[in-house]
């Protein structure tokens, strides 16, 4: 009679660590300091001030502002976070210093460098946005005032925008009637996306309480055509006025009483770089603060004449709207205005306030992603844009590719990123795999072994996610040869086939048949054993991906199909064993190498 034995197998990895851990370079932005207006180079300019005021009786008066010297840069606003993963996550991360410097070295930029630095214009220009395919209508006088406003709208902010000057006042600043201005608005709105109005009334915005009141102040035809233009998608940009008051002119209050104007109207107050504050002449946002923004308005060179006033801050914003319309043609007017407000740099009291509204216009922030970054999936839904943890078999090919993908922000705007920047190689973890022992179901016919085994060699997470475990159908030959003096040589070649699948939240659509091979060989002598193995080589097989690439002008997402060959050698594992202890070094083809020491022991009782 045999006495039964109870066997406990105790195993532990004594140590495991990467042999050549990859260092992560800190993303460094050489132009970060230039992104802050207080640190930009400043230039001095003399200036004169003027504004147009349209009264209830449709008469005009020029309001002269104090003259002086201006210099100094833009004002407050918080700094931006430095990079985390994607280059768009920090100021100018996608713009080379050479390209930025080239933009800032042009004569057109240098003329108004302080003001352009304040709104961080160089970044939108360096990103290639020039206002193309936008039409700006300037409703103004035939005098130098109207010409200066039109010159700013057509200047370097949006040089490819089409600017049309509609004269609603003569050279002496005598205005046509509000009813006639309404007809001009109807004509302009038929071909224009943006209407700039650098004039206002003497009545204050907080005194406006109803649509009927404004219609009585102006004209029903004026209000009706404004509302109709907004319904067709026109965005109005309005100067707040130059009385140095706490409230802008009454026309700036139109969205408060004309619902059609909401999301289609931006009120603009003027910033003075020299003061580092709201210009002394500028009306504050007051009752319009929810749709009010600040822009440079003092000491601007407008076609050879240096001017100041909210009249000249308004076309700066009009040109900025043209930039966003070109860059993201599928955005609605409501999205564009909200984007400008959301990305404005905070000034004055925290948050939206009655002086600066949403704060300083910022074309750097407005032309990069806002909020959550998601990658649309062809099957529907979206996945977060974050590093995909993939094995070397996948990552080594993609890290050297020029494949680009598109991702969207909170406004549904698409931006490009290199797929290689979203790849992080993960180690297979040979030590833990050896600790677990073989996970297989097999049968033997002499030296031939065939069956199924589980492997994680193609498991990935994130945008390239695959099944966690892959089943490999394999055939192997287990050979052992006597080499004399108690020494044996062993050899185990294996071939197999796997059929991994992409996850539903992945850009991987399918794999063609993956054919694998592996070989291990070594020798045993007494209590010692040494071996070298190349497991899970890929003889042939492709990974298919369907990735978002862009949006069409109407907002339709476009996808491209890609196929990547995964064929290539696997990791090489060298091991040395003495009785129950094994030390191994894994030379990975990508990622980090691995070294581990493992002890196993059977305890019988």
Number of helices: 14
Query: In angstroms, what is the radius of gyration?
Result: 34 Å
| Overall average pLDDT | 83
User: Which consecutive residue ranges, at least 5 long each, have pLDDT under 50?
Assistant: 1-9, 20-90
Q: How many strands in all?
A: 34
Which structural category fits the helices and strands?
Answer: alpha+beta
Instruction: State the oligomer.
Output: single chain
Strand content: 35-45%
Terminal-residue CA separation: 17 Å
The level of helicity is 10-25%
Q: What's the main sheet like? A: 11 strands, antiparallel
Gross morphology: elongated
What report would you give on this structure?
This protein has 605 residues and is α+β, with helices and mostly antiparallel strands. Helices cover 19% and strands 35% of the residues. It is built from 14 helices and 34 strands. Strands 1, 22, 23, 24, 25, 26, 28, 29, 32, 33 and 34 form an eleven-stranded antiparallel beta sheet that branches. The chain is elongated and about 115 Å long. The chain starts with 6 loop residues before the first strand and ends with a strand.
Task: Itemize the secondary structure elements and their pairings.
Elements: E1 7-18, E2 45-49, E3 52-54, E4 60-62, E5 65-70, H1 97-104, H2 107-111, H3 113-118, H4 121-126, E6 135-141, H5 144-153, E7 162-169, H6 178-189, E8 194-197, E9 199-200, H7 211-217, H8 220-231, E10 235-239, H9 254-257, E11 265-272, E12 277-278, E13 292-296, E14 300-302, E15 305-308, H10 310-327, H11 333-343, H12 363-366, E16 374-376, E17 382-384, E18 388-390, H13 392-398, E19 404-408, E20 414-418, E21 423-425, H14 430-436, E22 440-445, E23 448-455, E24 470-477, E25 479-484, E26 487-498, E27 508-511, E28 514-525, E29 528-540, E30 542-551, E31 557-565, E32 572-578, E33 581-587, E34 594-604
Helix pairs in contact: 5-10, 6-8, 7-8
